[in-house]
Amino acid sequence: MKNTMYIIIGTLLFALAVSQLGMPNSIAEGGIVGIALLIYYGIGISPSISTPIIFVILLSLGIRYLPRHMVYKTVFNVILFSVFIRFLEGRFAQPMEDTMLAAVFAGIITGAGFGFIYQAGSSVGGTSIIARVLNRQLGWDLTGTTLALDAAVVIVGIFIIGPVSTMYTLITLYIGKVVTDFVLGGFDSKKAINIVSKHSEDISKRITHDLASSATVFYGEGEYMREQRRVLYIVVHTHKLLQLKRVIKEVDPDAFIVVHNVKDVSGGFISGVPVE
């Protein structure tokens, strides 16, 4: 039930972005919706009609390479998207004077919609189906192939909606990706930091005292010097990163620090402190 609600909310948001901001302002998309929009801009066929047709064609080519649960959810998603577009297109939307504003908010709403859709394990992308076929048949990288196919759709848009609208489309896609990452990873983002220093014990004490946090200790050996060193590993909220780096530099200006983006943190975590 929860996944169904996520799909409905996410698809409605996506349909709103496409019908109210994308279509009136000649902004396209990636995937099969992007192809459907280019068909709409080129010959006037509504995405509510072309999207399910394109999806069925792609699905017939790649259904044996897709998990059944994904097929069922995506079919539901595509049908729902087409219904929403059919209802929404042409009812309320008008071209905006500032196309940049339309592109930005189309990206924000699309990203939020995709965040809900992906959390439910569904998709309306379509190009991922082709990517899975090429991955199985030719060994092509799944993520890179999907990205290349989406880029190809956008490039074709140059010849249909023109270079300016294509650049607005790129802005929409970029903002959409950023917002999707926020929805999936949460706004309370965290960073993972590895610290290598001769003064690691002093750094660990300062982290405990100044940041009310803690660190996990690993032992590593440098290939060049052949010296064993303590390696501190700590996960902190992003807003504490600058304070942490300041503490480290105060103890050891020559400390080696590596910062990683963390997509998700769960289990063994108390108020930002890894449980040792």
Q: Main sheet?
A: 4 strands, antiparallel
Radius of gyration based on Cα positions: 24 Å
The oligomeric status of these chains comes to single chain
Helix content: 55-70%
For the secondary structure, the number of strands is 6
SS strand fraction: 5-15%
Order of helices and strands: HHHHHHHHEHEEHEEE
Looking across the biggest beta sheet, what order are the strands in? 2-3-1-4
Return the average pLDDT rounded to an integer: 83
Number of helices: 10
Write down the overall geometry.
Answer: elongated
Number of domains: 2
Uncertain residue ranges: 270-276
Measured between the Cα atoms of the first and last residue, the distance is 37 Å
Keywords: Cell membrane, Membrane, Transmembrane, Transmembrane helix
Pfam family, one: DUF2179
Domain DUF2179: 214-267
Subcellular location: Cell membrane
